Amino acid sequence: MEGGGDSFGSSTAPLAWHDFLERMRQPSAAEFVKSIKRINIFSCLGPDYGSDLSIALSGTDTKSSFIVTFSNRAPDPEKDSTAVQEFLENMEGAFRAHTPWAGSSEEELESAGEGLEKYVMTKLFNRVFASVPEDVKSDEELFEKMSLLQQFIRPENLDIKPEYQNETSWLLAQKELQKINMYKAPRDKLSCILNCCKVINNLLLNASIVSNDNPPGADEFLPVLIYVTIKANPPQLHSNLLYIQRYRRQTRLVSEAQYFFTNILSAESFIWNIDGESLSMNELDFQRKMDSARERLLGLSTDSENQDNQANLDVQDRKSENLKANRNSDASLSMKDHVQGSGQDMRRDSDVIVDGKPVERVQSISDIEKKGAAELLSDDELNKKFQEYPFLFARAGDLTIADVESLLNSYKQLVLRYVALAQGMGVSPETTLAQSRQPPSDIIGSEEHENVNSVVNDNENSQGISKTSDDVISENDHPEALDIETSEKMTEKTAVDPNDGLEVSKDEAPRQPENA
Amino acid sequence: MGCSSSLPASNAGGLSNINNGSSDTDSKNFRVKLVLLGDSGVGKSCIVLRFVRGQFDPTSKVTVGASFLSQTLALEDSTTVKFEIWDTAGQERYAALAPLYYRGAGAAIVVYDITSPESFNKAQYWVKELQKHGSPDMTMALVGNKADLHENRTVSSQEAQEYAERNSMFFIETSAKTADNINQLFEEIAKRLPKPASS
């Protein structure tokens, strides 16, 4: 049952994503492709595709009963989760028995299962992530609580011994956790948590060696994880954890991965219940600190009060009806529903977190992005749209010195467009910049820069990971958010074409000659 | 102090540890989740490290830290038990989180420090907690650690033994520092585990 090793390994072993797609492209995989594609096309799973799947696999057409459009059904996390778990289980069973996987090793089958999970969940993400109002509300509340706590909590409040205190290095762990919203696949999100834990453990281990103390156990680990979680305050943490719990294939959320996942669940639970006593503080003192943290937060985010905040957003809404593209955007009245991806840059500097306004404004940009992405998906001329960006599918190794100039030009163009766009949409980036002590073009640029970088597959983040937590993620199988987005779009396009099957765009989008 | 001393682990009872992380789980080879409970500073993680060290497999994929470790024991009846050992934070403020960890555990080790009566009280709290909320067929062990510090003993082994008997637990005193009784502890737990037909 456990296959060839530790389950932590299976969560982090290089995922043969391309191998998966490669095999799905073989003619013998046509039935699989068909059954999976139905999910893609309708973005849904029927209630009893288990049996339908076998029919699909035996070659009978089952169009009508197989899929009930998800969007016509009210989201039901319990049912959705069971449905996905069963689907993955059945498909994994089917892989075992059918070409092109028949006779494959356990490892190959495992990796096919991983590939399928990632593929399916990337498709279903928008449909199932934070899909019920309770989850959205919990996200907001948890985010707010952490944004208050992080202003005054000290390591001592959590029993972190002085010899293990190392706030600077903990930033590395925070950074890993903050990546959680850059990914859609449960495994990738889980990897962010495991990487965060791994960084913490390495730091603790080093500290224990330096101070000649016992090797650190849970007494040392959990408090630091809680502290790091509060400081990182990744948006929608609650939904992320539920999502992993529900949609990470249960047989792969075991052993070490399960242990560390339990730790972050327990960190969440602790944070929900934090009061004066749990921080060894006088309750009155605790309340006073929470109040003044709240004042500081509001004071920085608006001129007067909370209402201002809302009015502000209303104006933005009128300026652009696009802002409501995201079904969660009702929740965006406060600064909770944070941008995925770009939030990461904002959060690196904890001073910035205190600030509500930029976050809220960035939120709007994110909504526009989401709308744009949705439109792109339905665009027949998709490939043409990307021809302007010759480096989108390039790898670091492909680049030559001569490319630097054109890359820089493209980058500048992109930044100018971005800033102009933001300005035009009334989501002026200046506020953000004023708070962040960085020159304007820098912070706006850095977001684009990272995205571009990540597509080029040579980003500093990945290198950071490999430095701090070596083999946990390999750069290629853990693409950055935009990468996933892009290949997903392309896949969706190409999936309709029977000849191309599920192939990602890597071959279809050759580098264009520089024409900018 | 302590558990990092380099004495080899004693290996009594004719049983041996094996480094087999790759066996399939079946009726002869099964795995069990074991949760460690006890006040902070009683040496929970030291006990586990002592158990795992010596038989440590450098190729093991377990790399994240000492709060989770796994180790496979071979028993005389040629079954193997893979322990997946979950450490918990022992500080008072984290006590309410323990159920998240012992849920689904097949075995629990409740540790106290024989030089600390407070830690023995805390151990009794955990025993009650497990009896109330843990799985009913959980195999439980009461462990008095730091037996090497017997000059400073404040918890008599007889008292602890009696308490353990009243609560149908297995009791043993260990020293993670000298490795005394560490393997015996895990072997005894392995023997007492209800053996599933398959898992």
UniProtKB/TrEMBL annotation, chain A:
Signal peptide: none annotated. GO terms for molecular function: guanyl-nucleotide exchange factor activity; small GTPase binding. SUPFAM superfamilies: VPS9 domain (SSF109993). Residues 136-280 form the VPS9 domain. It comes from the Eukaryota. InterPro entries: DUF5601 (IPR041545), VPS9 (IPR003123), Vps9-like (IPR045046), VPS9_dom_sf (IPR037191). Residues 299-349, 455-516 are annotated as: Disordered. Residues 301-313 have a biased composition (Polar residues). Residues 315-324, 335-349, 475-495, 503-516 have a biased composition (Basic and acidic residues). GO terms for biological process: vesicle-mediated transport. It holds the Pfam family DUF5601. GO terms for cellular component: cytosol; endocytic vesicle. PANTHER family: GTPASE-ACTIVATING PROTEIN AND VPS9 DOMAIN-CONTAINING PROTEIN 1, RAB GDP/GTP EXCHANGE FACTOR. This is VPS9 domain-containing protein.
UniProtKB/TrEMBL annotation, chain B:
One of its GO terms (molecular function) is GTP binding. The keyword Nucleotide-binding applies. Keywords: Nucleotide-binding. InterPro entries: P-loop_NTPase, Small_GTP-bd, Small_GTPase. CDD domains: Rab5_related. The keyword Nucleotide-binding applies. NCBIfam families: small_GTP. This is Uncharacterized protein. It comes from Paspalum notatum var. saurae.
